[in-house]
From TrEMBL:
Annotated Gly residues bias: 1-11
Biased composition (Basic and acidic residues): 12-25
Protein name: TetR family transcriptional regulator C-terminal domain-containing protein
Keywords: DNA-binding, Repressor, Transcription, Transcription regulation
Region (Disordered): 1-25
Amino acid sequence: MRAGGAEQGSGDGEKRGRKASKETRRQQLIEATIDSLAKRGYSDTTLADVADGAGLSRGIVNFHFESKENLLIATLQYMSEEYGDHWNAALEKAGPSVASRLWAIVHADFDRKICTKRKLAAWCAFWGEAKSRPTYQALCGARDVKYQETVISLCTELKAEGGYAYEPEPMALSLCAMLEGLWLRLMMGDGTTREKALEAAIAFVAIAFPKHLTIQGPQPQ
């Protein structure tokens, strides 16, 4: 019984090892794709570039993704999920206060994990292709809608608590456009830093919601 169990355990361990290796290689290739998009752009990124960047054979790329389009779709899906998971985690960690949740969602956009030069450049490459590629729009569409609905909900709560004169949906649109605009400035490399972009975003929300936020943080409840 013990011997048989040991053999079965060994087999399970090998299977887990192979599975982990497959997942690790896929992640290596996705990270190398982000690097190539940042360095070369969308059109000039090739499977050979990705393989070389990951330090893997070109056959491994073909084995995991079969085509450049499949690799790019997997990369966009990974980035979209990473971004969505990041701001959702920030909201959960912020607690029940609406001011703290808004503060958290603004900071999440400029966190070092998400807001890096290579990832911003990769996003820019995908955005440049999104209009002509419905698959890209579909991949991010549901998450974009959820984000927009979340910001509208926050603006609705802030209005109810603070008696502000704005309408929640237009205010939410303004807030999202401001955050996206700061990301674009960072992508353009015009000298705007991540820290300066966050400072600008904080200034915006402090002016828009003065009863809830200052540039130092949420107002005491």
